[in-house]
Amino acid sequence: MPTLSIVATPIGNLEDITLRAIRVLKEADLVLCEDTRTTGNLLKKYDIKTPTMSYHSHSKLAKVEKVFELFEEGKNIALVSDAGTPAISDPGVLLVAQVREHFGGKVSIVTIPGPSAVIAALSASGLPASDFLFLGFLPHKKGRETLFKELAGSKRTVVFYESPHRILKALESLNKFAPDKRVILGRELTKIHEEFLAGTAGELLEVFAKDPGKVRGEFVVMVAPA
Ligand code: SAM
Question: Where in the numbering of this chain does the Tetrapyrrole methylase domain appear (predicted)?
Answer without folding.
Answer: 3-204
